[in-house]
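Dear H.,

Thanks for agreeing to be a second pair of eyes. The structure we're designing against is below in token form, covering all 362 positions.
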């Protein structure tokens, strides 16, 4: 594929990041990244309708809507190689290429481990090739559309006009989404207290027998959905140093947040190997890695979904990813939030449970 020309940058007038995200959130392939509370990056991106998509669940790989049984590693390597055609604008962290995520279960598949038990509405991995997107520089107070490749001028003009004519976002305030007193009443935990207690006890036995030196444990909390709760929460409030990504898929929404940036330069010989080396797969399980994976496979009945995975971008300059430390899914009338914490031999199970539950209820 020939190298693309420098991206076209078109000013975007009178459009906020919130309005752009709200306007495109119902589009296929919608994705938004919010860097507004991150002083090092400060630029947020909104995009939809990718020119090409790749996703997989186990060995079922879907490329541009067609599903086949294939090697996830091979498929991802081929797909990410397309992102190398996109030249980055020197003033932007991203200006065309691949945007997406690999959840914990996706990394599990890429590393050759058996699929997890349970079910998730979202693919384990999803990337899109985006040649046109809206950018928002929160420090400068400016916004613009960036487009690359064939028909860049027409695509940039079309997106600019659509956003400038969009109805402004008027979502609920953060205070209405996060009441002062949040308690466990009405929240369904998975595993429940009894099952999670047994899991913690087994984990302590493994740690004290020195099979493991560290184990990362996760738990989920389910609460009733209230329509666009993830979108409203994503747009209404951010936390200092936190970067977040919101994606939609077949009527469901997923929100992933991170405080940890990961970066790797892609090697042309094996882009997926470079990609995998930058991801925190072992850090999201424990040490030693193989024994920690054995514990996870034998004790967990629910997907970890995004938690411990990563999201980010890929282009000709390499990969830029962030480790997912918190994630939430809004689907089928419920919001499922996943959080985790490390456990070592000297920690009491009750303390680990309390730490995870505090994250889930915050």
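And this is the sequence the design step returned. I haven't edited it by hand at all.
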């Amino acid at each position: 594929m020939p190298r693309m020309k420098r991206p076209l940058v078109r000013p975007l007038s009178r459009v906020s990041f919130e309005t752009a995200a709200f306007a495109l959130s119902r589009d296929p392939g919608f994705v938004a990244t919010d860097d507004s509370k991150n002083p090092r990056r400060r630029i947020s991106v909104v995009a939809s309708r990718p020119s090409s998509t790749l996703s997989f669940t186990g060995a079922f790989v879907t490329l541009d809507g067609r599903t086949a049984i294939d090697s996830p590693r091979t498929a991802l390597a081929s797909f990410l190689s397309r992102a190398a055609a996109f030249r980055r604008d020197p003033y932007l962290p991203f200006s065309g290429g691949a945007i997406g995520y690999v959840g914990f279960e996706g990394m599990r598949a890429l590393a050759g481990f058996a699929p997890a038990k349970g079910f998730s509405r979202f693919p384990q991995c999803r990337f899109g090739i985006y040649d046109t997107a809206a950018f928002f520089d929160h420090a400068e107070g400016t916004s613009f559309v960036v487009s690359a490749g064939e028909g860049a001028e027409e695509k940039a003009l079309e997106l600019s006009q659509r956003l400038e004519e969009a109805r402004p976002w008027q979502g609920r305030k953060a205070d209405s989404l996060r009441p002062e007193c949040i308690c466990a009443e009405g929240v369904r935990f998975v595993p429940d207290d009894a099952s999670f207690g047994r899991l913690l006890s087994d984990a302590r036995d493994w740690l004290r027998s020195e099979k493991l030196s560290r184990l990362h444990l996760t738990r989920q909390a389910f609460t009733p959905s209230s329509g666009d709760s993830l979108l409203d929460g994503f747009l209404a409030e951010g936390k200092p140093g936190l970067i977040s990504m919101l994606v939609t898929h077949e009527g469901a929404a997923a929100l992933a947040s991170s405080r940890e940036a990961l970066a790797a330069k892609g090697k042309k010989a094996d882009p997926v190997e470079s990609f995998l080396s930058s991801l925190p797969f072992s850090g999201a399980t424990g040490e030693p890695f193989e024994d920690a994976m054995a514990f996870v496979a034998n004790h967990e009945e629910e997907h970890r979904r995004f938690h411990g995975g990563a999201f980010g971008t890929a282009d000709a300059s390499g990969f830029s990813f962030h480790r997912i430390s918190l994630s939430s899914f809004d689907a089928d009338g419920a919001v499922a939030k996943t959080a985790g914490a490390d456990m070592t031999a000297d920690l009491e199970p009750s303390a680990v449970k309390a730490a995870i539950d505090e994250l889930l209820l915050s």
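Two observations from my side: The longest helix spans residues 193-208. The two ends are 47 Å apart (CA to CA).

Warmly,
E.
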